[in-house]
Amino acid sequence: MILRTIATKLPAPARSKLLMWKEAVSLWSARTEPCDVEKLRARSEVSLDRIFHSATVAGDWARWESRIASLGIPDGTGGVNPGDRRAIYSVVRQLAPQSVLEIGTHIGASTIHIAAALADSGSIEFGKRTCTTVDIRDVNSVEAAPWRHFGMRLSPRELLQELRLQDQVIFETSPAGDFLQIRQENYDLIFLDGDHSAAAVLKEVPAALKLLKPNGMILLHDYFPDLKPLWRDGIVIPGPFLAIRKLRHAGARCTALPIGKLPWPTKADSNVTSLALLLREA
Ligand SMILES: C[S@@+](CC[C@H](N)C(=O)[O-])C[C@H]1O[C@@H](n2cnc3c(N)ncnc32)[C@H](O)[C@@H]1O
Q1: Quick one: average pLDDT of 74-96?
Q2: Fewer Cβ close by (within 10 Å): the C or N end of the chain?
Q3: Measured between alpha carbons, how far apart are the two ends of the chain, in Å?
Q4: Measuring from atom 11 of ligand 1, which residue has the nearest CA?
Q5: How many CA atoms does the CB half-sphere of 134 hold within 13 Å?
C-alpha cells in the first residue's frame, strides 16, 4: 500500500522501472506451461511490408475511414490508438483469417476494425468470417453502460450495428484464463489485449497456442522490445515482453516480431506501434 502510494508520485519513467522490477519478480517462481508452437505461422512466411504497404488493403480501408471516424471513438481512454486500429484492420484484411479471437473488448475500438476487415476479406464460398471477443466485464451491459465512462456514446454492440457488422462478432463475458481453458473452437488469429501483466500473459500464450488453427498467429499489444520505451513519455508496459522472454527461455521456439513503424501516425507524434506478431522461429 505504502509502495503503491509512493509509486503514484514518481515520474513515469521511474514508475515504469518499478513496475518492470515488480513484474520480473512475479515471474521468478511462476510456472511455465508447455508451449506447442507447431500451429504457429513461421516467421519466414510473414512480410510486414506486404501487410502495411498493400494498395488493396489501403483502398478497402479508405471506404471505412470516414464511417468509422464519424463514430467518435476517443483516443486515450484505454482502447488501442487510431493508428493501431488501422494496423489491426490491415493485419486482418491482408492475412484474411477465417476466425479471430480477441481478448480484451473494452470499448470495442479494435473489435470494430477486426470486424470491418473480416467483412472485406470474406466471401460467400468460404463461409462466414467471425470474431469472438472476450472481456472480464460485460462491455454491453445496459445497466452499467461502461462505454460512457470512456467517452463513448455507443456500446461496442451498437458500434457494430451502426456499421452493419453485428453479424461478424460474438461477445463473451469471462476471465480470459477460464475462457481459453474451456474453449473448444479453434482460431486463425488470436489478439491478446486483456490483462497485460507478465503473469497473465505467461498463462494466456500457451493456452492461446492450443486454440490456434494450423498456420495461425497471435497478435500482442503493448509489446516493448528489450523493455525500452517506445515513446518520449518513457513508459514501458513490461508484461508481454517479459512473458515471451520467459517462455523462450523455457524452450518455446516462438519469436515476437515487433511491427515497429507504420506508414501512418500512431501516438505522441510518431508512427511507432507496440503491436507485435507472435510467430514460429524459422
Ligand atoms: C486495454 S483494454 C482493451 C482495449 C480494446 N482492445 C480496445 O481497443 O478497445 C483491456 C481490456 O481487457 C479486459 N481484461 C482485463 N483483464 C482481463 C481478463 N483477465 N480476462 C478478460 N478480460 C480482461 C479489461 O476489462 C479491459 O476492457
Answers
A1: 96
A2: N
A3: 45
A4: 104
A5: 20
Instruction: With H, G, I as helix, E, B as strand and everything else as coil, classify residue 75.
Output: coil
pLDDT value of residue 2 = 66
Tens digit of each residue's pLDDT (9 = 90 or more) over 209-265: 999 999 999 999 999 999 999 999 999 999 999 999 999 999 999 999 999 999 999
pTM: 0.95
Pocket-forming residues, ligand 1, beta carbon under 6 Å:
78-80, 103-104, 106-110, 134-137, 175-176, 193-195
How far apart are the CA of 226 and the centre of ligand 1, in A? 24
Burial 101-113 (b: 16+ CB within 10 A, else e): bbbbbbbbbbbbb
* Containing structural domain, residue 19: 2-280
d(CA 135, CA 125): 31
Provide the number of structural domains found in the chain: 1
pLDDT-based confidence at residue 128 (cuts at 50, 70, 90): confident
Q: How deeply is 88 buried, as exposed, middle or buried, from its count of CB atoms within 10 A (0-12, 13-18, 19+)?
A: buried
All three cell numbers of 179: 475462457
pLDDT tens readout for residues 24-65: 889 988 999 999 999 999 999 999 999 999 999 999 999 999
User: Which CATH number goes with the domain that contains 58?
Assistant: 3.40.50.150
Ligand 1 atom with the shortest distance to the CA of 195: 16
Dihedral pair phi/psi, residue 82, rounded to 5°: -55, -35
φ and ψ at residue 239, rounded to 5 degrees: -50, -60
Provide the pairing of β-strand 169-173 with 187-192.
Answer: unpaired
Ligand 1 pocket: which of 139, 180, 195, 235 to mutate (most atoms within 8 A of CB): 195
| DSSP H/E element including 241 | helix 239-249
